[in-house]
TrEMBL record:
Methionine-sulfoxide reductase that specifically reduces methionine (R)-sulfoxide back to methionine. While in many cases methionine oxidation is the result of random oxidation following oxidative stress, methionine oxidation is also a post-translational modification that takes place on specific residues. The lineage of its organism: Eukaryota, Metazoa, Echinodermata, Eleutherozoa, Echinozoa. Keywords: Metal-binding, Oxidoreductase, Zinc. Pfam families: SelR. It catalyses: L-methionyl-[protein] + [thioredoxin]-disulfide + H2O = L-methionyl-(R)-S-oxide-[protein] + [thioredoxin]-dithiol. InterPro entries: Met_Sox_Rdtase_MsrB, Met_Sox_Rdtase_MsrB_dom, Mss4-like_sf. Binds 1 zinc ion per subunit. Residues 34-156 form the MsrB domain. Belongs to the MsrB Met sulfoxide reductase family. It comes from Strongylocentrotus purpuratus. This is Peptide-methionine (R)-S-oxide reductase. One of its GO terms (biological process) is protein repair.
Length: 161
């Protein structure tokens, strides 16, 4: 069995004793109504953010994007990642070496698929984003592997254009 456990800068350290779905209530600033989200999001966005689904590798809108800007949660518009931290991991999903700021994402244990991984969720609304692994660039050693369907990109205006 594979085990992927990542120590995150926010101090969230997974322990094998807890289950994937905690019985502790999740307190997020933004409360989401599932029926409203079904109307707002595409089926893929809903599946990824609310049902912990994933998009096919190399099929996401932002996998190869190299523009300057920021990536936001498709559910609540919380800033999650900056383009300066995006890198090509070859995994088929957008990868980031760091979160946009302290506490913009949270980590949770994920025991699905026969291994222990670290799930990444939006800290503001709890939407599933992807997973984080400890095989990233030397700057942080982290690789946030995120579904494009969970993100909105807002590019930065270029002077003179």
């Amino acid at each position: 069995m594979f085990r992927y456990i990542v120590d995150l800068p926010d101090g969230g350290k997974p322990t094998p004793k807890r289950k994937f779905r905690s019985t502790e209530p999740e307190n997020y600033e933004v409360k989401v109504d599932k029926e409203e989200l079904k109307q707002k999001l595409t089926p893929l966005q809903y599946s990824c953010t609310q049902e912990k689904g994933t998009e096919r590798a190399f099929a996401g809108e932002y996998t190869d994007l190299k523009d300057d800007g920021n990536f936001y949660c498709v559910v609540c518009d919380n800033i999650l990642f900056k383009s300066g931290d995006k890198f090509d991991s070859g995994s088929g999903w957008p990868s980031f070496s760091d979160m946009a700021g302290q506490g913009t994402v949270k980590s949770k244990e994920d025991y699905s698929h026969g291994m222990l991984r670290t799930e990444v969720v939006c800290a503001k609304c709890g939407a599933h984003l992807g997973h984080v692994f400890n095989d990233g660039p030397k700057t942080t050693g982290l690789r946030y592997c995120i579904n494009s369907a969970c993100l909105n990109f807002k590019g930065e205006a270029k002077p003179g254009l």
